[in-house]
Specification:
Elements (H helix, E strand, L loop, with lengths): L9 E6 L7 H14 L4 E6 L1 H8 L6 H15 L7 E4 L5 H10 L4 H5 L2 H9 L8 H15 L5 E4 L4 H18 L7 E4 L27 H8 L21 H9 L2 H12 L5 H27 L2 H30 L2
Parallel strand pairs: 1-2, 2-3, 4-5
């Protein structure tokens, strides 16, 4: 008799709908998501409540941004027949579990999260001194454990959040009994992609190259991009590992071509303009099928909402089963 195959491990990740997705989102998460949908049981959430933590003044725009996210997901190759694509706020059990987890999460655990202090400093134009912004890692923990996720694919800037989730899980399980597995972080090969100003690519910093940008828009963003400061003149040698543009090479250019560009940079055998030209060539090669899929989906917007609603139903079924266990453990 053949043995019953082991159930596939579960993966959970999400995106805040605060605008369209960019190349950093693709390299930091989506590239792996597409691979994982063939290997794992995957839940991918548009985390609308997380968006409110910084965009509460723009709440009515979140629905439109959610549509943009879904189109980006489908354009890069996520397949609703292989993974669950859903909207967090349409699965109300996330909010209930967030509330329960918040009761056992010590305040100092939240105050020490690196991205909390970093974003308070970087986004001073927004009023982020709110309970929602401080506590959103607890909501993130609820998002993960409500599906009993084994793995969470994230960039390095989110790794501390997954570790906090593990701490919350240990504390919750110790108090109420073993309900949740401790999720594991899955870091991407290139965790950070530089934006046009040299900082980490981010919508918040206004330095992003978006998946939906046209070829000409991308060219206008990349060509003036900051490079290694050693290369003041064309004849000055540089160091690719200190060049923001070279992070794009690492993400989108084949290894043999990367090595060729690196040698040319270190010997001043190639100029920064030529280097950027190579990046653009390979970026466009990657983006052409993405743009084609986007055109097809944008012609039928109703299909996007149908896909998300079907995902909501699947996610809700799993979340309701988990919450039944949680309530029983608490004696409610």
């Amino acid at each position: 008799m053949n043995a019953t195959p082991a159930p596939r491990k579960t993966v959970l990740s999400g995106v805040r709908p605060t605008g369209p997705l960019h190349l950093g989102n693709y390299v930091g998460a989506l590239r792996n998501w597409v691979k994982f949908q063939d290997l794992y049981r995957c839940f991918y959430a548009i985390v609308t409540w997380h968006a409110l933590s910084s965009e509460y003044m723009n709440a009515k725009a979140i629905k439109g941004w959610s549509f943009e996210i879904a189109v980006d997901w489908l354009s890069v190759g996520l397949d609703p027949d292989k993974c669950v694509l859903f909207v967090q706020s349409e699965v109300k059990e996330h909010a209930e579990l967030h509330l329960l987890l918040s009761m056992v999460t010590p305040l100092p655990w939240l105050e020490r999260v690196p991205t909390y202090k970093e974003q308070l400093k970087e986004l001073q134009e927004k009023e982020l001194n709110t309970y929602g912004f401080l506590g959103y890692p607890v909501l993130q923990a609820a998002d993960i454990v409500i599906y009993k996720a084994d793995y969470v694919p994230v960039g390095e800037d989110q790794a501390a959040h997954v570790e906090l989730t593990r701490e919350i899980v240990r504390r919750f399980n110790r108090i109420f009994g073993p309900i949740f597995p401790e999720p594991q972080t899955m870091l991407t090969e290139i965790p950070r992609l530089a934006g046009t100003d040299g900082r980490k690519m981010s919508k918040s910093y206004g330095n992003a190259v978006y998946l939906k940008d046209s070829a000409e828009t991308i060219r206008q963003k990349i060509m003036p991009m900051v490079t290694d400061t050693r290369r003041v003149r064309r004849s000055d040698p540089g160091e690719p590992d200190d060049c923001p543009v070279f992070t794009l090479h690492k993400a989108f250019v084949p290894k043999d071509k990367q090595d060729e560009i690196a040698r040319g940079c270190r010997t001043a055998g190639i100029g920064c303009r030529d280097c950027k030209g190579v990046v653009l060539e390979h970026l466009f090669r990657f983006l052409e099928p993405v743009w084609e899929r986007r055109r097809r989906f944008e012609e039928h917007p109703e299909k996007i909402w149908e896909i998300l609603e079907a995902g909501n139903v699947q996610a809700r079924r799993v979340a309701q089963a988990t919450m039944a266990e949680v309530r029983d453990a608490l004696g409610f």
